């Protein structure tokens, strides 16, 4: 990155400027005595602090263009600072760069900034663009990674024609449920102690609220508490009305011997412990109904990389009347799996013999047909009537390949892996073009999202879960000591946003915890104020906020299976302050499209006081979010001039109802420790 540098305005108006030395990317922010102090001149020096572009509604005319739509882009500079701005874009159609000069179109309402505009022609090819900003002999480059002194080689903005991610994902709040631990709505289907035996051990029924660890002679995966789909249905009022979440994501629900159901025995049957297929139909109908709040959406967990060893196709324990691949080499399903030495040596998920990997073979293979191609395939059956689910969360999809020991497991997968998910997308979208497909991935998932033909988004471990945990709790998501500064937090977020097109960013699943990692509340040491702070960020950041059941009240829990405790329904009420805050935050998010699909702009990073502020804005609203990650309260002066907030205008903190007046381009307020403010106008 380029060196830190002072703006010319800073040199000219030093006596009238209140310094706050707040880092934005690689330049310094200064709070001006008046926004008019930012009238710049052409002096062969581009001022980085005034530069901005993203693919929000103010700066991009078509974030999801068709192949017939032109894309008109705007770019912001300080008023009178630059002699020219160019768009430089790479077109994959011919592998060439093109340059489009931008024209000045207007200034902002405060007289601080200029806006430049240029249009990229319509076509069906993917494109990547950056900006070159000149002031005489000086030149600066700008892309999704921010400004740089030299031309960047990565991190450009994306244009992917005919690629649309579901608007309901962009605008919704997701609630993730591990069914056995959420609510017991039908005790008649509870799995009792000794109900059956799997792999040498038997089931164990435990009382709600007791330890999730198995007793003597049992295993953790066969401990059951009785949660089921009827329970989810009965608690939809809590999810949709009390909290305001409108997307339900269920961990696997299909027939399986374990409590987690990632070892599928029958894709076409709901597990009896959770109810029946009729129960699923009833739940789907209730989720989509507006009776318990606004219309909802239902997402199921698609475990398509592997089956369980009890599946009829494999049938390791001779439970089926038909011969499975483990029982006979002449089985009709013998080519569904890959055997190195039949029957005991076969490709399995991460070496777990209970999870034999499916062999997808070539296009049109029996496995591909069963999972997604046929009209009665698993993926299509549940997306269409009478189930009408709204999408699939894909479990371990980077490993799905033509066979072998997790052959598609590298970053980016294999060509066959990408072919599978391209075919899967086509199959699912042919039934419901508005269905969501998001993959479980723990790193940079852009090789599956950025072609526009596979996933809509992914689980945002890398761009949300990990940095939030390290910044607020001082631990990574596995509870290992790891901390980052506020400026490091901002840099991490910027870098991971740059990995994806904006419409993918807006549909990324942003979770504080999930069923595979320790609970956020545990990492926070039980400090509920850290949960408050995390919730404020979660509900105001780019992406789909995803609440793992119980995180809204700070549920504790270590590594698996302790992260799958039963929901404490004595906490499931707005008398719990964290639940009440979650309700308020979701309501605020729903009130302002700027918090869902608006631009994101860093305003302030203060490492000493652990203050982070950023703007979310669209054509209708400007919002400054302030986060205090310190244990004590601080007076914070927020540089809202960056959002073109006019002096004398009023902002309202949507959390407290307090109002503040913009003075000298700033708003000053006190923010409690491990808390925040949402300043809207």
TrEMBL record:
InterPro entries: GH (IPR017853), GH13_cat_dom (IPR006047), Glyco_hydro_13_lg-like_dom (IPR004185), Glyco_hydro_b (IPR013780), Ig-like_fold (IPR013783), Ig_E-set (IPR014756)
Single Gene Ontology MF annotation: hydrolase activity
Alphabetical list of PANTHER family matching this protein: ALPHA-AMYLASE FAMILY MEMBER, MALTODEXTRIN GLUCOSIDASE
Pfam family, one: Alpha-amylase_N
Presence of the UniProt keyword Signal in the record: yes
CDD domains recorded: AmyAc_CMD, E_set_CDase_PDE_N
Signal sequence interval, chain numbering: 1-39
Domain Glycosyl hydrolase family 13 catalytic, chain residue ranges per copy: 176-589
Gene3D superfamilies the UniProt entry points to: Glycosidases, Golgi alpha-mannosidase II, Immunoglobulins
Keywords tagged on the record: Glycosidase, Hydrolase, Signal
Protein name as annotated: Glycoside hydrolase family 13 protein
